[in-house]
Amino acid sequence: MDEVKTNCGNWIDYAYAEWLGWIRREKKEQYYLGEFTEIYVERMRNALLEAENGNALKKEEAWNLLERLKKLGTNIHGMKNDFGGDKYAYEQAAIHLECAIVAYKMGDVQEAASLLLMPISSFHNRTLPKAVSCWIYGCIQWQSQTHLEEALINWEKSHQIVTEMAASNSFEQAFAQECDRIANEMSRAILTASRQNYPPPPPGYTASTSSSPRTRSTPKPQSSRMGLFPVLGSIPAGSPVEFVDDSNEKAASDGFNIHGQFYKTYNLKTGSEININQNHRYFLLKVNGDSMNNAVPINIEDRDYVLVVKQDAAETGDIVAAEIKQVDREATLKRYSFKNGEYGLFPESHNPANIHLTYKKDFYIRGKVVAVLKRDG
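The structure assignment produced for this chain is given below.
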């Protein structure tokens, strides 16, 4: 999975820099961003670059600029009724494409996928921005074991768009030749991915070497920008029990003081800041049991808390809070897997008594764990 994620991330960078970058240089009228919008996008990407270089405050700035760009896009889209033309019709889609790439690079795959839906549906069929949008959406889908066919379809859509552009008489010869070159790059990637069931690296990138075993050492606590989260009772890291919802308690954001005790925060994404997306809902669960006490990269032990983002879907490898709908509502904390039509909930424990659970129905994901909170001292 690490190689898939690495290759997909590299493809997103490649598609943006090489394919979309070429359009920005050669066919400015197909880029659709206005001058002042470009300034906002440049500021957002510069903030992202500084955040990637270790400036944590710049990540918050990048998120703020992303949200402002989304609002700006909504207002610009309304101008098409007053002035018409492709500029205002497609500028919001171009903004969403830019924001989707930044959201992905900041670790919010769900936000990136959601943002891509507009450019995919809004851009004219014979435009490279639409092809790039479909390709990047496919890159996100490749990282989910349940969406591999959809990933191939979106890549094939991209290929078909660029192939039609190369064959069109509407473009000059040099432009058509470049489209043909891009189409060939896409075709090679699609054929290779079809054979090996995961995407190859893009041109100029070497195959990922990140397949070495993951270490089980606990990283240093990650400071984070966080709000207040409801504490929804407790959840067993063992056998399922009744799902308790008691949201009267709150965990304070400044250092996570819970019931008078200070808890340090450990990110499940080692070495990266925990990003709290204000558009998503979060809650805390107290852990009971030992079935995840050997989880990587962070051991999840009895009496720890976990920070959970509320969602009803997950990818293979995520640690989830899951509800099992039987006679009574039951909840459990496990590593999630989906294979051959079966949902698996797997423990990662030093205790051999913990066993994995497999279901075909009456199984619901209530959220994905993004961080672990451990009592200080």
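Interim note for the steering committee: The longest strand covers residues 363-375. The radius of gyration is 23 Å.
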